[in-house]
Amino acid sequence: MGFWTKLLGLEPPELPVHVDDENFEREILRSELPVLLDAWSPGCVPCKHLEPIVIRLTSEYRGRVKVAELDVSRAPRAARRLRIGGTPPVVYLRGGRELERAVGLHGELYHRQSIEALLLDEAPAEPADEEAAPLRDA
């Protein structure tokens, strides 16, 4: 904890759950909560701009949405399962199914609206086509 954090009594920001090839299924596909997954790569400038937004959303939606981050360079199997071709995509999932994908850098308002839509939709996700099918291995 830093000096100013202690002095001002501020809580350190809550950080997204780190996801890799080993915990992808447990943390993402079996999550009881809806998931916002930020896929990033080292050296990706838009990813760096997205990071503070994701951290703010992590704290704001704690307990209602699992916010996670995936370094695609260190988790190639998970990136392949998500069909990530470039960074940064933010993938919204519920019940192991992808519901939405925001490719590229989008502002905080966009992500807040996507989360609220995800939270309002209480019905189980039904795949509209093969793209929305579960990401679990057969």
Shape: globular
Which range does the strand content fall in? 15-25%
Radius of gyration: 15 Å
What is the CATH architecture assignment?
A: 3-Layer(aba) Sandwich
Q: What do we call the CATH homologous superfamily?
A: Glutaredoxin
Number of helices: 5
Largest sheet: 5 strands, mixed
**Annotation, overall tally of beta strands:** 5
The string of secondary-structure elements, in order, is: HEHEHEHEEH
CATH topology: Glutaredoxin
Number of domains: 1
Q: Segments where pLDDT lies below 50 for 5+ residues?
A: 123-130
The CATH C-level name is Alpha Beta
Would you tell me the structural class of the helices and strands?
alpha/beta
Strand order of the largest sheet: 1-3-2-4-5
Structure description:
Helices cover 34% and strands 20% of the residues. It has 138 residues and is of the alpha/beta class. It has a single domain, classed as Glutaredoxin (3-Layer(aba) Sandwich). Strands 1-3-2-4-5 form a five-stranded mixed sheet. The longest helix has 16 residues. It starts with a helix and ends in an 18-residue tail after the last helix. About 6% of the residues have low confidence.
